[in-house]
Amino acid sequence: MDQEKIGKFISSCRKETGLTQAALAEKLGITDRAVSKWETGKSLPDASIMIELCNLLGITVNELLTGEHITMDDYKDKAEANLLDMRMKVEQRDRTLLFTEKVMIGVIIPVYTAVVISGAYICKSGNIPLGIFLIALAFTMVIPFVIIGLKIEHEAGYYECPNCGERYQPTMKAIIWAPHMGTSRKMTCPHCGQKGYHKKVVSKNKE
What we know:
The chain is built from eight helices and five strands, in the order H-H-H-H-H-H-H-E-E-H-E-E-E. With 207 residues, the chain is of the alpha+beta class. The longest helix is centred in the middle third of the chain and has 54 residues, at 72-125.
């Protein structure tokens, strides 16, 4: 998607409807600064207000994402192009999230291990209160990273069943309780009902 083109289109449609940036912002419950950022191509409207924005401007969501008015002859092609572009952006976001998770694991495990070993050594040396404090600190420190990691596992990408090949997003409960090896988790497939180690994949569709 061409953000600059979309921004100019929003600006043009807004002016055609006789709305100022402030008036449009007020109707959407946002700041006029946000509208200004759309129109200069610095950001895109949030999905939660996209339909309301289109209704106010008298355009369709496909026209908004394309940055131009669409004739009926071009509607299907433009819609498919927009869906493909959005899918690619989601997959890129998921790749970034999963890479971030790997970096987090690579950092937190050595730090956690070092702090626990230090605490155990200090306990053995006789300073038990300080040793216990360090061990407790290590456990406390790792909890936020575990929560973030589980959230990424749930929201980014899909899991592929080794039995039927179906790709799906499991529930958070299934993620939490599933034994795992690397990026694979032992879960029950919601489609075929078989258990197995389901590997993490980025795309919903097989290449």
